[in-house]
Amino acid sequence: MTKRTLLILATATLLVMGGLGLLIVPWSRGVSAIRFLSQGWVWWQQLLIGLLVGWLLASIALWIIQMPYLKKVNAFFGELFKSFNLSLFDIFWISICAGIGEEMFFRGAIQPYLGIALTSFLFVLLHGYINPFNRPLTAYGLFMVLAIGLLGVMTEEIGIISAITAHAMIDFILLMRLARD
Q1: What integer pLDDT is reported at residue 79 of this predicted model?
Q2: According to the model, what pLDDT value does residue 154 have?
Q3: Is 175 in contact with 64 (CB distance < 8 Å)?
Q4: What's the 3-state SS for the chain?
Q5: Which has the closest alpha carbon to 168: 103, 91, 121, 99?
Q6: Dihedral in degrees, nearest 10, Cα atoms 100, 103, 108, 111
Q7: 14, 84, 117, 140 — which has fewest CB within 10 A?
Q8: Where are the domains of the chain?
Q9: For the chain (length 181 residues), average pLDDT per consecutive 10?
Q10: Would the pTM count as exceeding 0.85?
């Protein structure tokens, strides 16, 4: 995969998954997409909570991937993302696209049908972090199920903007670390 392909995939995530989420939300949530986006705490409070939770979860994830047990997993993803030679804007764009697109689809459209736990597991499974042939990766994946589950709770209790922001923050911090180290 090339850097250009990665950026196209990120943009497609925003447009396709985000678009599907916006289309499905009225049926899954029983409110318009605009109403869903404006529900919960005031937008700036959601943004602040999302930034703080995203930073905390990314910090824990970084601590976990530094463990000797995950050395090979860490090296694999580090080399992969270094090979893309991502700029700060690239990392920001990928993070924003994933945060908005994936959260609108998984939290907005899918979560009302499958619940928080199953949606979180499915999300992590589709990202490839659950692999019965790779125990270290699966161990990290199980942490991610809990982390993503927290984003599901945030969506229901605080609002979707908090989950979008936390997701984007997690991705931004992890991509910065993987692309730079």
Answers
A1: 83
A2: 98
A3: no
A4: CCHHHHHHHHHHHHHHHHHHHHHHHHHHHCCCHHHHHHCCCCHHHHHHHHHHHHHHHHHHHHHHHCCHHHHHHHHHHHHHHHHCCCCHHHHHHHHHHHHHHHHHHHHHHHHHHHHHHHHHHHHHHHCCCCCCCCHHHHHHHHHHHHHHHHHHHHHHHCCHHHHHHHHHHHHHHHHHHHHHC
A5: 99
A6: 170
A7: 117
A8: 3-180
A9: 94 98 97 97 98 98 90 82 91 98 98 98 95 92 96 98 98 92 68
A10: yes
CA count, 13 A, side-chain hemisphere, 88:
0
Label residue 90 exposed, middle or buried (CB < 10 Å: 0-12, 13-18, 19+): middle
| Token pair of 73 as six digits | 């997993």
